[in-house]
Amino acid sequence: MAILSMGTTFLRGGLDSFTAVNTGISNKLGIGLGVYQLAVNLVIFIFILWLDRKQIGIGTILNMVLVGFEIQWFTTIYHQLFGYRTTFLIVAADTLIGLILFTLGCIALHGTGPWCGTI
């Protein structure tokens, strides 16, 4: 999950629409992505508990709690190392690095991550 989170950081806001929306809303509300995504995930978790408890495992809990905070942490490190400059080359390099990390993360999770689908 950490590799996926790092890949998402390089992809600036998320490859998936869920993380992109959470990033945008948390910025608008002025709260950290980790806190906001955890709150949203808790609401979803309640519905999953009610509808199909068998779908919940340790990966569900770790993903629910860690991913938003990991993306937030990696983004802070990214900005400390590389700053906030954006040029075509930086975006291209970030996209390439992000896709590689994201793919490696999906492979490590055997295609079962929330963003991976089935690979």
Protein model, in words:
- The structure is a single chain.
- The chain has helices at 2-10, 17-29, 33-51, 58-82, 88-108.
- 73% of the residues lie in helices and 0% in strands.
- It is mainly alpha-helical.
- It is globular.
- Helix 1 packs across helix 4 and helix 1 (2-10) packs antiparallel against helix 5 (88-108).
- The mean pLDDT is 84.
- The longest helix is centred in the middle third of the chain and has 25 residues, at 58-82.
- It has five helices and no strands.
Features:
mainly alpha; 119 residues
List the topology elements.
Elements: H1 2-10, H2 17-29, H3 33-51, H4 58-82, H5 88-108
Helix pairs in contact: 1-4, 1-5, 2-3, 3-4
**Uncertain segments:** none
Largest sheet: none
Mean pLDDT: 84
- Structural class call reads mainly alpha
N-end to C-end Cα span: 16 Å
Count of DSSP-assigned helices = 5
Short note summarizing the structure:
By secondary structure, the chain is mainly α. The protein has helices at 2-10, 17-29, 33-51, 58-82, 88-108. Helices cover 73% and strands 0% of the residues.
